[in-house]
UniProtKB/TrEMBL annotation:
The lineage of its organism: Bacteria, Pseudomonadati, Pseudomonadota, Alphaproteobacteria, Sphingomonadales. It is found in: Cytoplasm. Residues 129-243 form the DNA polymerase III beta sliding clamp central domain. PANTHER family: BETA SLIDING CLAMP (PTHR30478:SF0), DNA POLYMERASE III SUBUNIT BETA (PTHR30478). It holds the Pfam family DNA_pol3_beta_2. This is Beta sliding clamp. The gene is dnaN.
Amino acid sequence: MKATVERATLLKSLGHVQSVVERRNTIPILSNVLIEATGDAIRLMATDLDLQVVESFAAQVSTPGATTVSAHTLFDIARKLPEGSQVELSVDNNRMSVVAGRARFSLATLPRDDFPVIAESDLPTHFWLPAETLKQIIDKTKFAISTEETRYYLNGIFMHIADGNLRAVATDGHRLARVTTPLPDGAAGMPDVIVPRKCVAEVRKLLDEADTDIEISLSASKIRLTVGNATLTSKLIDGTFPDYSRVIPTANDKLLKLDPKSFAEGVDRVAAIASEKTRAVKIALDRDRVTLSVTSPENGTAAEEVPADYTSPPIEVGFNARYLLDILNEIEGDTVEVHLADAAAPTLIREDDKSPALYVLMPMRV
């Protein structure tokens, strides 16, 4: 194999695929990226056996061929090569030579035939989503994905059809995020799927450079997304997502309206002295104002008043400051609605009743 490619092109594509590769691997080949040079293009592939990313880019190929080489090492080399340089990749006697200007590297390779590939099976459901819509779905839900491995079925975003719309939901038991978007053409009849956290994170990185519609194909066990020149294939979480609709309150009769930016800034300030363990902030609601306060045995106390629109009886409720800020940071409008029942009941947060995103936050004792 022998090919020449521009350093910026190589670096960009390696950046997309190498982040899938785990830093520590018991199977050596999984530390590698597969490089295939044919015609006038190079194809890169990386996998962790659950998630696979493939990306192609134009290159001058003088000798077709394929090999595998350490993904992180090659990425690190490409990152440190001079800007604008041409990189020559060639393979001889189980070594890969990387040459750019006066810099030369010789890297160990492993056989291409040993590289595992996720089977390209037929995925019956096929539709397109605008990049901005997929970004919104991910950004407004991913912070609520659970990291608790014992409840593995919560370690992703649950996507399903409800009321003729596409819904995406994530929850970790403390907070819940739900986004509703019109059902795309071709998605009718799609199975309920749980897209794993790592797949969500890798897709989101690719979306930063995408401005076209994203092609999505899925079955009950796999999902494939094509973003620009990159195709990402992932196994789905094999589990049953709980009936989340039961925790979305419908009878919270106390309505608080306020500016999400000043509310978030106030919460952030008083939380500066909150203990790392609980991060608890007390919110006292009275007519047309909210008093935020924190009492920490080791650090002291803090309080701040925030103007608000509130006409119901006074109430005090406590929240985890970080969880509350995660939600407020996703509110884009000038007003946020906080629907409360009492100090122990789930709280509903949204921009208004027409907003595609809805959040539920469990209170804390303070």
